[in-house]
Amino acid sequence: MSDVFFTRADKLAARKVAGEIVILRADDSSLYVLNPVASAVWEAADGRTPLDAVVRDVICRDYDVDAETALRDATELLAALSAQGLLRTSDQPLPAADQAPPHGAGA
Amino acid sequence: MNALMQRVWDRALEERVPLSVQFDLTYRCNERCVHCYLDHDDHGEMTTAEVKGVLDQLASAGTLFLIFSGGELLLRKDLFELLGYARALGFDIKLKTNAILLGEREADRIRDLGIRSVQVSIYSHRPEIHDAITKVPGSLHRSLAAIRFLRARGLHVLIANVLMRQNAGDYPHVRALAAELGVDCTIDPTITPKMDGDTSILNLRIAEPQLLRVYTDKSLLGDPANEPPPPTDDEMLDALPCSAGHTACYISPYGDVFPCVQFPMPTGNLRGQRFGDVWHQSPQMNEVRAIRVRDLPTCSTCSFMTTCTRCPGLAYMEGNMKGPSSADCEKSTARARGLAAERT
Fold it and tell me: How far is CA B273 from CA B52, B54, B127, in A?
């Protein structure tokens, strides 16, 4: 599988609230709350780190899951978040997102 | 509020996260609205660097919803620099403005920054009434032009229609105007004392017959439930009076932190203190947080308690944050009379 790079889409607001990433779209006020694994993927969305590295260095480190399963689930998650317009993906590194990594309390 | 949003607020409450903050960047204004509660002289607004420092702290504290207001925001020459900085920190941003300085270029920038909503004050559909309230000739025309600029760019706009004696009968026309413009509209009959405690502007509050009209207007409220209010129970008595100091607070242009824009109880100042220290450790903030409905000696036994929209900040301005707020007592009475009339 070729590398997949991903970054956060523009015109989103996001914050980590009590351990979960909360995302709000500016255009239609849609609200998303990511579970802890999806939150970890979101926080790693810097446009430079490929998905398999995020899976290896973050997901498999923090969760009891084998690499193959984790990569399959993360790939599905990436597709879902991209379909919702929350992430942009590419087979090449992407420019850094226009937002700093989400700060937040209760993480 | 949908279930997912309610869950976010509940989690924020559990973790004491200041999820929503109103941040007034200036009290200076280019209108002189007759009902305004602010002193428009500049007593030393925070600098660009100071505001950015506060935004950094709010982001770290978990604030997501940021309402920038004033005064008139567009009088700050660094407004768009601050908006860009705040967006880069991931805030969801709503602007409150009179919009008379908002042209096509400003509308473009607001769109490009991903601002979610812009609230514009409109007092009447009649220029002679609106402009007499703002004391700026031509202000209605300019505000409406700005709304059209924003809408042409697909931005969400909300008209805020504050009701007072001068414009109490105009709200149906303002709502029709909002519909024509494709924007939302809120009606609010609340006139608050000035922040220095001066109550002279309270005589602008709409009279009881006008208030009754508002509370019996089915187009505003829907069909009022033709039933008495639900009985008081322990869950209601243990409830919080409102979100002020729990998941929300207010920051003035001078760095003062209050529980809410309508609750001017000083709890700290960000020129000498860190936001997190004020939010978590201020004795005044913790005093506000400790109050439950059952601690309100008059209101907890009032027959309107379960339907009242009591504002603790207005009560505070009347001298006792655990007491009633007369404005809300009047609203509750009007609401009850409206319901009684509905049943007969």
Answer: 15, 10, 45
State the DSSP string of B61-115: HT--EEEEESS-GGG-TTHHHHHHHHHHTT-EEEEEE--TT--HHHHHHHHHHT-
pTM over 0.90: yes
The number of angstroms, rounded, from the C-alpha of B187 to the middle of its chain's C-alpha atoms is: 12
Residues 6+ positions from B32 with CB-CB distance below 8 Å: B40, B134, B135, B136
Contact A26 B19 (CB under 8 A): no
Of A10, A26, A106, nearest to B116 by CB-CB distance is A26
Q: Which residues of B touch A31 (CB under 8 A)?
A: 2, 4-5, 8
Q: Are B307 and B335 in contact (CB under 8 A)?
A: yes
Per-residue pLDDT tens digits for B17-75: 999 999 999 999 999 999 999 999 999 999 999 999 999 999 999 999 999 999 999 99
Beta strand B184-188 pairing with A31-33: unpaired
Contact between chains at A13 and B92 (C-beta distance less than 8 A): yes
Rounded Cα gap, residues B24 and B301, in angstroms: 36
- The answer to whether B116 contacts A106, with C-beta atoms less than 8 Å apart, is no
Contact residues on chain A for B8, CB-CB shorter than 8 A:
17, 22, 31, 33
List, for residues B90-102, the tens digit of each pLDDT value.
999 999 999 999 9
- Taking an 8 Å Cβ-Cβ cutoff, which residues of chain A contact chain B? 10-18, 20, 22, 24, 26-27, 29, 31, 33, 98-100, 102-106
Which residue pairs from B171-174 have beta carbons closer than 8 angstroms and sit at least 24 positions apart in sequence?
B171/B214, B172/B219, B173/B124, B173/B125, B173/B126, B174/B122, B174/B123, B174/B124, B174/B125
Q: Determine whether B139 is exposed, middle or buried from the number of CB atoms within 10 Å of its CB (0-12, 13-18, 19+).
A: buried
